[in-house]
Design goal:
34% of the residues lie in helices and 13% in strands. By secondary structure, it is an alpha+beta fold. The strands form eight sheets. It has a five-stranded mixed sheet, covered by helices on one side. A five-stranded antiparallel sheet has the order 5-4-18-17-16. Keywords: Carboxypeptidase, Glycosyltransferase, Hydrolase, Membrane, Multifunctional enzyme, Protease, Transferase, Transmembrane, Transmembrane helix. Pfam families: Transgly (PF00912), Transpeptidase (PF00905).
């Protein structure tokens, strides 16, 4: 076993080995790295010698990862995201002081030698041999660039990073070979430019532009001599010379760089001495990375954009390929987010629901006919600090896109059942007995020619005993009568309903298949707010369903050039006839103006339509509504499906019970009012509906689809009934088209009037 000499130097054996290493490496350098693939040198290991004589394209123009900027539809910045905080700049955009400082401290003979500084190699090897360790390096800037490119391509994979930096003779010789070729093909200025753009400067800053902005909040072209010296000094050891965490050590290193700049003649000794006296002058900008930095509460919209990119095959055949492009960055993504709509959504949510409430809310707005997502927000902000009620779960979207398992939409699903029935030929004047309580009808046809059978006598009820038919479709929709819609689905079958839902893009949030059960009519399948908003946009666009989109365009900067990337396009298809959609619009217009959704109305100057929804146990409440030019959905509830919304405080207001018309409705009204401010107010195309059949009226009705309390059918409810005409159905506030028949109701005792309301 070789031993050191008593004086601490190398043994004879070690000296021989060191001399041999020096000779081999020096000979290789002098021979221009014209070496065969000799296994003894480590060149053939793991195929590392393949393509050895060819310079990889990524060395000429490294695919540097950069920050990605996400913009709203008007071109204003929403957020920046990156795996490497880097902004690539041309050499002319970098301060001459910075160029001189990095050369002076890292490779003072950069402009004098070739790719390999033979003097430096021999000097370093000699010094290291004497010290018995590695006290001095000899890599030129060009060699460092080659290694940095390999590290950059390794990304965050520790195995690949280790391979890129492994201390083997084979890697070193390959590095020298490529360095020679780079010098021949790129020249000194381009090499320096690439080096300054790829190098890590600590504090998450990659490249000189990001470093300059991080430490001094200025562009690299404006760096002063002492600032340039500080940044140049960091490169050797970003952690040791970090000026934020160790300003004393960083100052010593800066002064060393200034001294070296004076020694090589870049600045005078007087300039160096003056610069050494200056304070570090830091003006640190905190890293702003990720959707947590998004403005206007758009963190979840930002995250949805990322999910779209990583999941849509248009950006790459595999998820790995898409992730590589995303991590490489340099993207400018213009989205569909309308800043006015987004601001309105967040303002409305903030006014009605606190982030600390036991329940949360989420709201989404889309544009009918285009599928563009205009806004997306929620009461619990984007982030990872649970103590601040933050979350990264997007409550507006499906599980596969960063959301949760969804929430039962309740009676907001009923218009889809009605659309399936009307599209199949049912008259909107169809009347059902709609008793207060009934067994689920059986058998009911389902897809595949089979039947659903009520084997255990399962029953359902309306909200209270006074809710008794017969009702027409108009009344049943306005009052959200459960038994009416179950009788309807029994007549038409379940399959037409699930098929209509599919045409409208309605799917379960957890990705499971839609259940073949008549309770689907009552909204028992979990959905997301985005799904419901986009489904109702189908009604608004007179039956045309358009897939939702969040991205308008993407450009990617690669080196000094930019290119456009293909983006997903909305695909529109006819889900139902115009007449069916117009009929639903007419029905749902009445819900907002005179039914369970009156508190969501936008006023007489802005035609709107919509539907309330409340689930069993009041675990979720909804309002989904639309105008001809915007559709939106609001959900309120406990994301964990544990807290019932009874005797609960929301937004500082205490509610005995929550239902769709009372909490989600006003949130929807306020968010849509702001989003639509200054926008055109087009009308719906309404259709005449058949006259209602006379039936039992009601004097006891909640604003909820299934609620109790406030009477919507007269000026007073309960046992005394309402005014004449009130107990049948409320008189509409809009003018009836020619050919419509307006009926009259008569008040009755116990809240039950004899009369058909209106026709």
């Amino acid at each position: 076993m070789p031993k050191k000499r008593s004086g601490g130097g190398l043994s004879a054996t070690q000296q021989a080995a060191k001399f041999l290493g020096v000779s081999v490496l020096a000979g290789a350098v002098m021979a221009g790295i014209a070496l065969p693939a000799v296994g003894a040198l480590g060149l053939a290991a793991k195929g590392s010698v393949e393509g050895f004589d060819e310079l990889p394209a990524n060395l000429k123009q490294p695919p540097l990862s950069q920050r990605t900027t996400i913009l709203d539809s008007k071109g204003d910045q929403i957020a920046t995201v990156y795996s490497r905080d880097r902004t690539v700049v041309d050499l002319k955009e970098i301060s001459p002081y910075m160029q001189k400082a990095i050369v002076a401290i890292e490779d003072a003979r950069f402009y004098e030698h070739g790719a390999v500084d033979l003097k430096g190699v021999l000097r370093a090897l000699n010094k290291n041999a004497r010290s018995g360790g590695v006290s001095q390096g000899a890599s030129t800037l060009t060699q460092q660039l080659v290694k940095n490119v390999a590290v950059e391509e390794a990304g965050d994979d520790p195995t690949l990073v280790a391979q890129a930096t492994q201390q083997t003779l084979g890697r070193k010789i390959r590095e020298l070979k490529y360095a020679i070729q780079l010098e021949e093909e790129l020249g000194k200025k381009k090499i320096l430019e690439n080096y300054l753009n790829i190098t890590f400067f600590g504090q998450q800053a990659y490249g000189i532009e990001a470093a300059s902005r991080r430490y001094f909040s200025k562009s690299a072209k404006d760096l002063k001599v002492q600032e340039a010296a500080l940044l140049a000094g960091i490169v050797q050891s970003p952690s040791r010379y970090d000026p934020v965490n160790d300003p004393k050590e960083a100052t010593k290193r800066r002064n060393t760089v200034l001294q070296r700049m004076a020694e090589v003649g870049d600045i005078s000794r007087a300039e160096a001495d003056k610069a050494k006296e200056k304070p570090l002058g830091l003006k640190v900008s905190k890293p702003k990375n990720g959707c947590i930095t998004a403005v206007k509460g758009a963190g979840f919209f930002c995250d949805y954009v990322r999910e779209v990119f990583l999941n849509d095959p248009v950006f790459g055949k595999t998820k790995k390929a898409r992730a590589k492009i995303w991590n490489q960055g340099g993207l400018t993504i213009q989205t569909t987010m309308d800043p006015k709509a987004q601001k309105s959504v967040q303002a409305s949510i903030k006014n009605h629901v606190n982030r600390t409430d036991e329940v949360a809310t989420a709201g989404t707005i889309v544009e009918p006919g285009t599928g563009k997502i205009l806004a997306m927000g929620q009461s619990r902000p984007y982030g990872v600090d649970v103590k601040k009620n933050q979350t990264t779960i997007n409550l507006s979207v499906d599980d596969s896109m960063g959301g949760g398992a969804g929430y039962q939409p309740g009676s907001t699903f009923k218009p889809i059942v009605a659309a399936a029935a009307i599209e199949g030929g049912m008259s909107p004047g169809k009347s059902y007995s709609a008793p207060y309580k009934m067994e689920y009808p059986s058998p009911i046809s389902v897809c595949g020619g089979k039947n659903w059978v009520n084997t255990d006598g399962t029953t359902l009820t309306n909200e209270n005993e006074t809710e008794v038919g017969p009702y027409s479709m108009r009344k049943a929709t306005a009052l959200s009568v459960n038994t009416y819609f179950v009788q309807m689905i029994a007549d038409i079958g379940i399959c037409p309903v699930t098929e209509m839902a599919g045409k409208m893009g309605v799917e379960r949030a957890d990705g499971a298949k839609m259940g073949q059960n008549p309770s689907i009519a009552l909204g028992t399948q979990e959905m997301s707010p985005l799904t419901m908003a986009n489904a109702y946009a189908t009604f608004a666009s007179r039956g045309m369903y358009c897939t939702p989109i969040a991205i308008e365009s993407i450009t990617q900067r690669v080196g000094e050039k930019s290119k456009s990337l293909q983006v997903p396009k909305s695909t529109c298809s006819r889900a139902m006839s115009e007449n069916t959609a117009d009929t639903i619009n007419t029905l749902l217009k009445g819900v907002v103006e005179d039914g369970t959704g009156t508190e969501a109305g936008l006023g007489s100057g802005r035609p709107s339509a919509g539907k309330t929804g409340t689930t069993d146990g009041r675990y979720a409440a909804w309002f989904v509504g639309y105008t001809p030019n915007m559709a939106g959905a609001v959900w309120v509830g406990d994301p964990a499906h544990e807290r019932r919304m009874v005797n609960i405080s929301i937004g500082g207001v205490t509610y005995a019970k929550v239902f769709g018309g009372k909490v989600p409705g006003p949130i929807w009204r306020d968010m849509m009012s702001g989003a639509l401010a200054g926008e055109p107010a087009p009308n719906f195309t309404l259709v005449p509906l058949p006259s209602d059949n006379p039936g039992r009226g009601r004097g006891d009705r909640d604003d909820d689809d299934n609620g109790n309390g406030d009477d919507n059918n007269g000026n007073s409810g309960g046992t005394t009934g309402g005014d004449a005409g009130g107990t049948g159905f409320p008189t509409p506030s809009f003018s009836w088209p020619d050919g419509w028949i307006q009926g009259q109701g008569n008040g009755g005792n116990n809240g039950n009037g004899n009369g058909g309301g209106f026709g």
